[in-house]
Amino acid sequence: MIGEYLDQPDATAQVQEHRWHHTGDIGYFDEDGFLYVVDRTKDLIITGGFNVFSAEVEATIAALPGVRECAVVGVPDRKWGEMVTAVVVADRGYELSEDTVIASVKAAIGSVQAPKRVHFVDTLPKTTAGKIDKKVIRAGRST
């Protein structure tokens, strides 16, 4: 069992309840008992009462030709609660448009999951571990 986060008592208190360490992972078991982790609760986007898994949208966008990497976050929206927003780094020599990305996601997984906005950037912020830093992205994007 994990005891605590090093020198972070507030973070430890937030994830521990009744001696359990809650990671925030969202998953399901299939009929054969295999566990599939589909996202993290902090990355879940709730838009218009629907749950959108950012990882599913990211995988769909990442499969498009010319996409080097991407991140999908929910940004505050007065009408929907959160708005699905993608931040995309295109490969050199590729011209991607916001309309192309949105239409492709709509066709593949539906309009609720499709980003309402797509921002193109040269690089995505990374953590010291080399992972995309969604906290930085969320802090810099709003409607």
UniProtKB/TrEMBL annotation:
Q: Check the UniProt entry and state the signal peptide residues, or none.
A: none
Q: Where are the transmembrane segments?
A: none
Q: Which domain of life is it from?
A: Bacteria
Record domain AMP-binding enzyme C-terminal: where? 56-131
- Report the protein name in the record: AMP-binding enzyme C-terminal domain-containing protein
